[in-house]
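quick one, two chains, predict together pls
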Amino acid sequence: MTMRQKMLCVAFFLSIGVLPVIAQAPAGNFTVKPADVAAVKQSMKTSADQVAQQILAAQKAAPGGALQLDIEPVVRSYYAAVAHLAAHKPLQVAAAAAESARTDKQIDASSSSSSGTTSTVDRPGIATLLGFALEHGAITQSVQNNTVTFSSSPYAIATWLGGGDTDINYGKFANTYGRVGFSANFNLTDTSNPTTSATRKQLNEWTAKVRLGKDHSGRSKDAMLAFKQHLAQPMQNLANAQSAILAGIFGADASFVQIKTNIFQQVTNYLSSHAADSDAAKQTGLSQEILDTAFDLLQNVILSNDMQNKLGSFVEAYDAAAAQFIVSRPELDAAIAALSKRPSFTFVYAQEQPSLGNNYSVFKLVYAQSPPNFMQLTVNVSGSLYHHPNPSRNQDTFRDFTSSVELLQKIGRSPFLRDPGNKDQISLSFSGRYQRLPENQGVPGKKADIGVAGGKFEIPVAPGVSFPISVTYANATELIKEAHVNGNFGISFDLDKLKALLSK
Amino acid sequence: MIQRMIGSYTVDPTETVTIEVVATKVGDFVTAALDGGPLNPVGDPPPMRFQFPVTKSAGQTHFVVLRFVFDATAPDDAKYQVFVEGSKGGGRFMDFTIPKQDPTLSRTLDFLVANPGA
């Protein structure tokens, strides 16, 4: 510590009316012997690295923000090493380990869409921010269209206007606005209708979704119950043990404040004098600065005889709590994963505005479940009604009945993703659909019972961006009784995922 | 209450401290401990609020350790934000931000009890 820093400390404590008790404590030396210094510093290194990482990450996230310094990990690892040495136990690195993959969202056009969709089946998930998808293809239409689909939810708007996607807003809106999603699908080029401009954007379909069942997400009440059941107590024990070490050593005086103030000053000086360094160099240098400063300052802390006797049991309690926490930690993820596999029901209303033919409304029920050790199952059942049926085309108000089923399997990580934090997976799905179209009954050249079978392969190609490609076989289209095979492809942008990955 | 730096406060001997944790894109998976014992949440979350009266004498320090966890479904931009407020005024202070990538998922707040005459 420089003379200037010492004077700053004294001035600080005088200014708040507290004298540094550390200097007045009864003698009870507990310093590390020179032969053990290297080993103790080595056992503190992981914690120093973590503290440096926290500081630099906070600075990167909010440049110019206040320094976020938490010295507890370094202090704890010092005393853990000291206690282990005193007990003639081998030094160990402190139990530091005590530290987006959704495929249920429908980002592209719904399967009801008259054109430009790669999907045979609708999935129940709702985009919380904004999704959009560009697609080319057709499932049961004769015309291959290029479309763009935008999807979002009232929840996204409410949170944008009201402070972000916080637990407070989730508590207020998740069970109301969060149940609802909407999307709009536009034709980018309408090759089917020569009277329209080739560049005219045309609303092809809009949909509204309402989740009917309970919230099964990681933020639901059930998830909170799972946390309380599986992890809250081990985490509580760990927090208790951490605070017990600090309170036991530093609770009776202001010495911790003195040490933190000094390290704060050293870190501030280091960052200002190494502003131009690379991130890696800063991380290494800052970690070393924190480690050396903390070690020197902690060497001067005088422990009472009582505390010297208790330190070993405090550290043991921490080690036991950390070990229990590590064992319990996966239980929370397993419980939340089990929640997400529960059945879900979603009601979908879609209004179709085909470039050829009359507008109609689709009413659809979507069921999804991920049974244990089985593929993700999605079932759709829907009926549709013409708004203005045309009797000359054999149309009645009831347009069609459709049912479809999809089985989806995640098959592994995409080779295009370099960020280990991005958990998007390649998926492969198989689907089948049956459609009964009464208006085609008895009409020459048309078929009333249309069957579709297909496979879809979707590969994430960049953060929040995936490339779906599907091949379908249909025994007819709605307009022509002619079996055909279609290839459909697109590109989906999930801004929920994109924003999450880019903001890291 | 005076915020000396992030995570460090000077409090009045008769003050009550409120710590609020706002979770963004993650559940309220937080626990808190005060001086070696549990510090239970108060009120009806969200957000999670922890409260304690200052019971130590001038020159002594209370320690609160907060622990956080992010479940696997939380997106990478999920975070916890800590706010601290004292009953004797001074304001509501923004404190640590804990991102999902944080290496320790723990933060310590120290509350040094000031000499009332100072």
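Residues 1-27, 93-105, 138-143, 197-201 of chain A have pLDDT under 50 and may be disordered.
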